């Protein structure tokens, strides 16, 4: 299944699927509208719920919380991975982290 990209706003959160997948949150390049400066990559059992949690004032990752609460345009790139295990999604997540170098992911030991 191919990855999809959408402009991420709090008002569109209810339209996200409650599905397993891998996702990345980006800033948007002002000049060409394309994703730039990856902020976070994650895997989830519930894309809608996890993405909604990042908009919360209770988001534990301070850098991500500040970005998500800002007025900056956010882009969400996601790939739904139904019928996958957490380990399988974790493998894809690690590949995306390596490729996209997100600013606010925790560094692995």
Spatial strand sequence of the major β-sheet = 1-4-2-3
Helix-strand category: alpha+beta
CATH-wise, what's the superfamily? GIY-YIG endonuclease
- The number of domains: 1
Helical content class: 25-40%
Examine the coordinates and then state which fold CATH places here, giving the name of the CATH topology.
GIY-YIG endonuclease
Please give the alpha-carbon distance between the first and last residues. 31 Å
Known CATH architecture: 3-Layer(aba) Sandwich
The largest β sheet comes out as:
4 strands, antiparallel
Tally of separate helices? 3
- What is the C-level CATH assignment? Alpha Beta
- Over all CA atoms, what is the radius of gyration? 13 Å
- Topology order in helix (H) and strand (E) letters: EEEHHEH
Residue runs with pLDDT of under 50 for 5 or more positions: none
Shape, per Cα inertia axes? globular
What is the mean predicted local confidence, pLDDT? Answer: 93
Number of strands: 4
What can you tell me about this protein's structure?
- The chain has 109 residues and is α+β, with helices and mostly antiparallel strands.
- It has a single domain, classed as GIY-YIG endonuclease.
- The protein is built from three helices and four strands, in the order βββααβα.
- It has helices at 47-55, 62-69, 86-100; strands at residues 4-8, 21-28, 35-44, 74-80.
- Strands 1-4-2-3 form a four-stranded antiparallel sheet.
- A hairpin with a 6-residue loop joins strand 2 and strand 3.
